[in-house]
Amino acid sequence: MPGSMVATLSGGDAGASTLRRERLGTARAVSLAVLVASVVAGAGLGRKPLSWDEAVSLSAAQHRLSGLAALLAHTDAPLGAYYLLLHGWLALGRLLGQPPVESWVRLPSLVGAVVAVGCIVALAARYVGPPAAAVAGVLLAVHPTFVFYAQDARPYGLATAAIAAATVLFVRALDRPSPGRLASYAGVAVLAVALHLFAALALLAHAVVAVRRGRPAGRWVLTAMAVAIAVTPLVLVSARQTAEVSWIPPASPRAVASVLTHLYGGPLVLAALLAVVVAVLATRYGPHRAAVPVGDPPTGRWTGLRSMLPTLRASPVAGVPRLPRTGPARPPVAPWSVPIVVALLPPVLLVAADLLRPVLVARYALVALPATVLAVTGAAVRGGRVARAMLAVALVAAVGTTAVQQLRPYKYENFRAATDAVTDTARPGDGMLFLPLSSRVGYLAYAGRDRDGHLPADPLLRRAPRLADRIGGREVAARLVPARVHAARRIFLYGTDLAALSARPGPSSAPKVRAVAGWRVRWIRHFGAVSVALLTPPRPATPPATSAPVSQPDPPADR
């Protein structure tokens, strides 16, 4: 056999062996991170009571399909796909004899979080190799914000998983934009937006990277058009439903700082992550900066991004090979532009949109968190000893913050304890008033679980939340409220911030507040953001004492 052929075969065997080792290492890294995510987020999955948002999810998912469509026509259209998924999940539970307890309702979010961790580790392995990818996956798995929404019966965990999967498919499509790969990416992208509308922020980040890399225009434009056409009906319906975000405060520097701090895991974790970035910049620009790696110097408008992570340029492990292209030359974009842009652009766009209409909520940018963890981990791994030490500090801070978070007895509202307070003290003839009426879904999530207690009547309920097209159900007309309330021996007020609602009641609460005006408050108890008060009717006024009438002699009879 000629020597050149032997060398070729031996080189091929070595390459195949290296590829097998890399795949095995990636599989081990994914398994480790997925195991950590399952243990951390799965521990105590059903311990905390449902929050109000979660109770709304449960109530909506318990509708019949026709009722769910009617509900979504009035409110929560952007969450329709998640409610439909949860509806099927609860139906599966009924077939298995599984009641809709907290752990079962939250399990889809946990599965989504585990998928997101697996996707981000698989993606990270392309950039920094399996060992560092495992570090990124573990950091994400113990990140307090990520764990919180992994244990939340809302769509944010699933949407984050969909964006993580879409990012993996996007990188593969950058590698080779075949119709199959682009179709897979488009399908997952549509699913992500259907689960949560603000997932589109991450897709815009993908579009920026694709444009800057000069991908073949035709296929990418068709892919973008297909995604846009698929999500347009949802966007149009959602644009008419603005009440769901009316509670968000106006934009302010304090609000931006608070939201970003919450998004990145609290002050300790955020400080450690920023310290990693500072250490990398110091390594690059400080007096003892590292030498620039061998390769072409960064050029074009992406110089700033590439110089922040100078050691993370394309490599046989990390690189996404550039395809030959025709047309005008474009500035080269490092493959690290994918996680960097996906990490930075969604929060920036959210803050910018908040200037037009208040939408700044941390969970709306949660889809950027996995890419943030990947970018910071990659920078730390190749950014010097100090950066790696700061990454270890971030990991410890994340574990500590998550542990404290897990020990809290509830999230925002403790509907479980509030409902127990009602059923433990209720008597026959008692009634319930909900301020506001939407708090009824939190009460109904737990009412009836304890068969030993007594359930007060709900005198104002006309149509139950599970059957109505409004969150909290439909109540009787305002003119009927006084008679219904006064027929009860005692009244439980149940809701959020009863004092404020009593002082400044809304249109639906005002008739209830007037109906109990003058009633005596026997006690009031607070369970997080929800309160319960027991009211009794005023004592009837005692009539004033009157002197006995003076008797008058009978007139003499006529003779």
TrEMBL record:
Coiled coil: none annotated. Residues 101-232 form the Glycosyltransferase RgtA/B/C/D-like domain. GO terms for biological process: lipopolysaccharide biosynthetic process; response to iron(III) ion. One of its GO terms (molecular function) is pentosyltransferase activity. It is a multi-pass membrane protein. The chain crosses the membrane at residues 27-45, 105-125, 132-150, 156-174, 186-208, 220-239, 259-282, 333-353, 360-380. This is Glycosyltransferase RgtA/B/C/D-like domain-containing protein. It comes from Actinocatenispora thailandica.
